[in-house]
Amino acid sequence: MTVRGGFKWWHAITILAAANAVSALPAGFGGDFAFYNAFQQPDVAPPDWAFAPVWLVLNVTSLVALSRIANAADRSSARMVFLWSEGMGWLLFSAFTTLYFLLHSPVLGAADTVAGLIAGLISLVCALRLDRLSASFIALRVLWLVLATYVSLSVALSNPDPFLGTGSLL
Is 82 in contact with 127 (CB distance < 8 Å)? Predict the structure, then answer.
Protein backbone atom coordinates (compact mmCIF):
# COMPACT_ATOMS: atom_id res chain seq x y z
CA MET A 1 0.00 0.00 0.00
CA THR A 2 1.49 3.35 -1.02
CA VAL A 3 1.13 6.05 1.60
CA ARG A 4 0.38 9.58 0.43
CA GLY A 5 0.51 11.14 3.89
CA GLY A 6 -2.62 13.30 3.78
CA PHE A 7 -4.14 11.86 6.96
CA LYS A 8 -1.87 12.69 9.89
CA TRP A 9 -1.78 11.32 13.45
CA TRP A 10 -3.26 14.55 14.76
CA HIS A 11 -6.29 14.10 12.47
CA ALA A 12 -6.99 10.81 14.27
CA ILE A 13 -6.51 12.40 17.71
CA THR A 14 -8.84 15.26 16.74
CA ILE A 15 -11.55 12.89 15.50
CA LEU A 16 -11.23 10.71 18.61
CA ALA A 17 -11.28 13.67 21.00
CA ALA A 18 -14.15 15.49 19.27
CA ALA A 19 -16.35 12.40 18.90
CA ASN A 20 -15.81 11.32 22.50
CA ALA A 21 -16.31 14.84 23.86
CA VAL A 22 -19.62 15.18 22.02
CA SER A 23 -20.57 11.67 23.09
CA ALA A 24 -19.71 12.35 26.74
CA LEU A 25 -21.60 15.63 27.08
CA PRO A 26 -25.11 14.18 27.62
CA ALA A 27 -24.27 11.55 30.22
CA GLY A 28 -20.56 11.61 31.01
CA PHE A 29 -17.97 9.13 29.84
CA GLY A 30 -19.66 6.25 31.61
CA GLY A 31 -23.14 7.00 30.37
CA ASP A 32 -26.16 6.83 32.62
CA PHE A 33 -25.74 3.38 34.13
CA ALA A 34 -29.01 3.58 36.07
CA PHE A 35 -30.94 4.30 32.87
CA TYR A 36 -29.21 1.48 30.97
CA ASN A 37 -29.59 -1.04 33.79
CA ALA A 38 -33.27 -0.24 34.41
CA PHE A 39 -34.33 -1.82 31.13
CA GLN A 40 -35.34 -5.40 30.51
CA GLN A 41 -32.38 -6.66 28.47
CA PRO A 42 -31.46 -9.87 26.66
CA ASP A 43 -29.08 -12.23 28.41
CA VAL A 44 -26.27 -11.35 25.99
CA ALA A 45 -26.36 -7.63 26.88
CA PRO A 46 -22.87 -6.50 27.91
CA PRO A 47 -22.41 -5.12 31.43
CA ASP A 48 -22.46 -1.32 31.61
CA TRP A 49 -18.75 -1.09 32.46
CA ALA A 50 -17.75 -2.86 29.22
CA PHE A 51 -18.82 -0.13 26.79
CA ALA A 52 -16.07 2.44 27.41
CA PRO A 53 -13.09 0.07 27.03
CA VAL A 54 -14.62 -1.78 24.08
CA TRP A 55 -15.41 1.45 22.25
CA LEU A 56 -11.94 2.82 22.97
CA VAL A 57 -10.36 -0.20 21.27
CA LEU A 58 -12.86 -0.08 18.39
CA ASN A 59 -12.34 3.66 17.89
CA VAL A 60 -8.56 3.32 17.82
CA THR A 61 -8.62 0.38 15.40
CA SER A 62 -11.16 2.19 13.21
CA LEU A 63 -8.88 5.23 13.09
CA VAL A 64 -5.94 3.04 12.07
CA ALA A 65 -8.08 1.65 9.24
CA LEU A 66 -9.20 5.16 8.29
CA SER A 67 -5.61 6.38 8.22
CA ARG A 68 -4.41 3.47 6.08
CA ILE A 69 -7.17 3.86 3.50
CA ALA A 70 -7.19 7.68 3.51
CA ASN A 71 -3.43 7.67 2.82
CA ALA A 72 -3.56 4.98 0.15
CA ALA A 73 -2.66 5.86 -3.41
CA ASP A 74 -5.92 4.22 -4.51
CA ARG A 75 -8.44 6.91 -5.44
CA SER A 76 -11.26 4.56 -6.41
CA SER A 77 -14.93 4.97 -5.70
CA ALA A 78 -14.58 2.26 -3.03
CA ARG A 79 -12.15 4.52 -1.16
CA MET A 80 -14.52 7.48 -1.40
CA VAL A 81 -17.48 5.42 -0.18
CA PHE A 82 -15.32 4.09 2.66
CA LEU A 83 -14.37 7.61 3.75
CA TRP A 84 -18.00 8.76 3.66
CA SER A 85 -19.27 5.72 5.55
CA GLU A 86 -16.58 6.15 8.20
CA GLY A 87 -17.56 9.81 8.57
CA MET A 88 -21.18 8.75 9.00
CA GLY A 89 -20.10 6.15 11.55
CA TRP A 90 -18.32 8.79 13.62
CA LEU A 91 -21.38 11.07 13.50
CA LEU A 92 -23.63 8.22 14.62
CA PHE A 93 -21.20 7.27 17.41
CA SER A 94 -21.20 10.88 18.61
CA ALA A 95 -25.00 11.17 18.50
CA PHE A 96 -25.82 7.94 20.33
CA THR A 97 -25.56 9.20 23.91
CA THR A 98 -27.70 12.22 23.11
CA LEU A 99 -30.40 10.03 21.60
CA TYR A 100 -30.27 7.25 24.18
CA PHE A 101 -29.19 8.86 27.45
CA LEU A 102 -30.09 12.54 27.17
CA LEU A 103 -33.42 12.06 25.39
CA HIS A 104 -34.05 8.73 27.20
CA SER A 105 -35.06 7.04 23.97
CA PRO A 106 -34.21 3.38 23.46
CA VAL A 107 -36.01 3.54 20.10
CA LEU A 108 -33.83 6.38 18.80
CA GLY A 109 -30.78 4.66 20.30
CA ALA A 110 -31.67 1.48 18.43
CA ALA A 111 -32.18 3.42 15.18
CA ASP A 112 -28.74 5.00 15.64
CA THR A 113 -27.20 1.59 16.33
CA VAL A 114 -28.80 0.00 13.25
CA ALA A 115 -27.58 2.93 11.13
CA GLY A 116 -24.11 2.48 12.64
CA LEU A 117 -24.14 -1.19 11.70
CA ILE A 118 -25.14 -0.33 8.13
CA ALA A 119 -22.35 2.25 7.90
CA GLY A 120 -19.91 -0.29 9.34
CA LEU A 121 -20.96 -2.95 6.84
CA ILE A 122 -20.49 -0.49 3.97
CA SER A 123 -17.03 0.39 5.31
CA LEU A 124 -16.18 -3.30 5.66
CA VAL A 125 -17.19 -4.14 2.08
CA CYS A 126 -15.13 -1.23 0.76
CA ALA A 127 -12.15 -2.03 3.00
CA LEU A 128 -12.13 -5.63 1.79
CA ARG A 129 -11.49 -4.27 -1.71
CA LEU A 130 -8.84 -1.80 -0.55
CA ASP A 131 -6.80 -3.14 2.37
CA ARG A 132 -7.23 -6.45 4.22
CA LEU A 133 -5.69 -5.22 7.49
CA SER A 134 -8.04 -2.25 7.56
CA ALA A 135 -10.93 -4.59 6.81
CA SER A 136 -9.99 -6.72 9.82
CA PHE A 137 -10.08 -3.62 12.05
CA ILE A 138 -13.47 -2.58 10.69
CA ALA A 139 -14.72 -6.17 11.11
CA LEU A 140 -14.11 -5.89 14.86
CA ARG A 141 -16.47 -2.90 15.01
CA VAL A 142 -19.05 -4.61 12.82
CA LEU A 143 -19.06 -7.68 15.09
CA TRP A 144 -19.62 -5.47 18.13
CA LEU A 145 -22.37 -3.60 16.30
CA VAL A 146 -24.11 -6.86 15.41
CA LEU A 147 -24.34 -7.61 19.13
CA ALA A 148 -25.24 -3.99 19.93
CA THR A 149 -27.97 -3.98 17.28
CA TYR A 150 -29.53 -7.14 18.69
CA VAL A 151 -29.40 -5.74 22.24
CA SER A 152 -30.66 -2.28 21.29
CA LEU A 153 -33.54 -3.63 19.22
CA SER A 154 -34.48 -5.99 22.04
CA VAL A 155 -34.39 -3.14 24.57
CA ALA A 156 -36.38 -0.84 22.25
CA LEU A 157 -39.07 -3.48 21.69
CA SER A 158 -39.24 -4.77 25.28
CA ASN A 159 -39.38 -1.48 27.18
CA PRO A 160 -41.28 1.79 27.12
CA ASP A 161 -39.68 4.79 25.43
CA PRO A 162 -40.03 7.81 27.75
CA PHE A 163 -39.08 10.32 25.03
CA LEU A 164 -41.45 9.01 22.35
CA GLY A 165 -44.12 8.10 24.88
CA THR A 166 -44.48 4.56 23.58
CA GLY A 167 -45.03 1.41 25.59
CA SER A 168 -43.36 -1.94 25.24
CA LEU A 169 -44.10 -3.58 21.92
CA LEU A 170 -43.40 -7.11 23.19
Answer: yes
Residue 3: inside a domain, yes or no? no
Q: What is the pLDDT of residues 33-89, one digit of tens each?
A: 788 888 999 999 999 889 989 999 999 999 999 999 999 988 899 999 999 999 999
Q: Closest Cα to residue 110, out of 70, 72, 67, 163?
A: 163
Q: What is the pTM of this model?
A: 0.90
Q: Is residue 45 part of a domain?
A: no
What residue numbers bound the domain in which 140 lies? 55-170
Assess contact for 59 and 16: CB atoms under 8 A.
yes
Range list of β-strands (E), 11-166: none
Which sign, positive or negative, has the C-alpha torsion 158, 164, 166, 169? Answer: negative
Count of structural domains within the chain: 1
